[in-house]
Automatic annotation (TrEMBL):
Keywords for this protein: Cell inner membrane, Cell membrane, Membrane, Transmembrane, Transmembrane helix, Transport
Protein name stated in the entry: Histidine transporter permease HisQ
Species of origin: Sulfitobacter donghicola DSW-25 = KCTC 12864 = JCM 14565
Subcellular location, principal: membrane
Regions crossing the membrane: 26-48, 60-84, 104-123, 163-187, 207-229
Amino acid sequence: MDSINSFLGPLAFGSTGWGDDLARGAWITLTLALWSMSLGLIFGLGLAGMKLSRFAPLRWLAAGYTLFIRGVPEFLILLVVFFGSDALINAGLLWMGFEAGVEVPKFAAAVAGLSAIFAAYACEIFRGAYLAVPPGQIEAAEAIGLSRGKIFWRIRCPQMLRFAIPGLGNLWMVVLKDTSLAAVIALDELLRISKLGGETEGRQLTFFVAAGCIYLALTLVSDIGRAWIERRARRGMVKV
């Protein structure tokens, strides 16, 4: 019992431990994942539309973007966004005649970098889901005189979202864990707090095990939520 108390002692809440800091880091991790996923889905939906466009330059631009994101390490992309956003904004201010020296908040830079990364993967999920809708249903809708807008919103879009849910659920798991990359820009998310606590207390194993348990709890709850959403989306479908 004494050994267990000694192992868990640095994780206590209050002024004697790091429990409050770890909880704050977990909250920042969850918030970062939610923002990155939300913006990544919006951007990814736009990229999917570009890839499905009849206008060739849009398809080439979207294909080039996804190729670049997939070919460059996510760690490097986050660093480029973090340092590049400062340089770009300050250069723009100087060009307009204003004084430079603006620093982009670390959280905003992390959201921008992660959403840019995962938009490329969301793009392929949406594109695959769009193409998975049976073409016969679209042809039948056209035959009865439905407009293209009604066909999309009433027939294609509901089924497309149903097909996309499993892939988006997996993408959320990846986003949640890859928020740890933000530690490289000194954002106080869960992994960085664990690293600081371990170095301060000289108990790295204790803090990293605690961080692992928190990540596991978040992914477990997320997986339960994903399964529930999938069941709801499949209501009324005929089992083959």
